Amino acid sequence: MKLIKKIGVCIVLIGLLSACKSKEDDDTSYLALLLLAGGYNTCSFSPAGTPVSIASMSAIANGTPYPLSFTQIDKQYAAIQIPAAIAGNILSFQVSSGTLGVAVYKGGCPVTKGVNLAAAGVDFAFIAGAATITNSAQIQFNVAGSYTIIVNTADGGKGTFQLN
């Protein structure tokens, strides 16, 4: 019964959203709605000037691995939000297939590509691996604060992340 209610609510919301489109090619609203309906949080990310909602996950420092969920734009993107990293926290990635790329940003969402990048060697450091991950990598945060990690894959990469 819950699933039927969710489907009904989604249909109503999509109908309302289509009436509110500012332009005929404004499909980012649909994407955000579908992500929310699927139970995902979203992060506004601008890879090329236009903000797009991408799947977002919060990292909790409990050592539990969580699967990455991606949103297709020009590549597949995901955001990992860390609202309160402590100096010494380690974010680990494990790749099960493909290749992942990561970029570390200071602060939370929204994120614009190349703006507010965290400084490698100052704010954080790769203690294993590098920004292009084919197997595993570990990022240690040197400065406490809020961070957003943008993860991308061009080859359908899959993997997990965990914060310790």
What does this molecule look like?
This protein has 164 residues and is an alpha+beta fold. It has two domains: 1-39; 41-163, Jelly Rolls, CATH 2.60.120. It is built from two helices and 13 strands. Strands 1, 2, 4, 5, 7, 8, 10 and 12 form an eight-stranded mixed beta sheet that branches. A five-stranded antiparallel beta sheet has the order 3-13-6-11-9, with no helix packed on it. Helix 1 runs antiparallel to helix 2 (28-37). The longest helix has 18 residues, at 2-19. It is globular, with a radius of gyration of 17 Å. The relative contact order is 0.21. The model has no long low-confidence stretch (mean pLDDT 83).
Comma- or semicolon-separated keywords:
2 domains, Jelly Rolls, eight-stranded mixed sheet, 164 residues
Determine the mean pLDDT: 83
Q: What's the total count of β strands?
A: 13
Helical content, roughly? 10-25%
CATH class of the largest domain: Mainly Beta
Topology:
Blueprint lengths: L1 H18 L8 H10 L3 E6 L5 E7 L7 E2 L3 E2 L3 E10 L4 E8 L2 E7 L4 E2 L11 E5 L3 E2 L2 E6 L3 E9 L4 E6 L1
Parallel strand pairs: 1-8, 2-5
Antiparallel strand pairs: 1-2, 3-13, 4-5, 5-12, 6-11, 6-13, 7-10, 7-12, 9-11
Protein name: Lipoprotein
Short recap of the structure:
This protein is an alpha+beta fold and 164 residues long. 17% of the residues lie in helices and 44% in strands. The chain is globular and about 35 Å long.
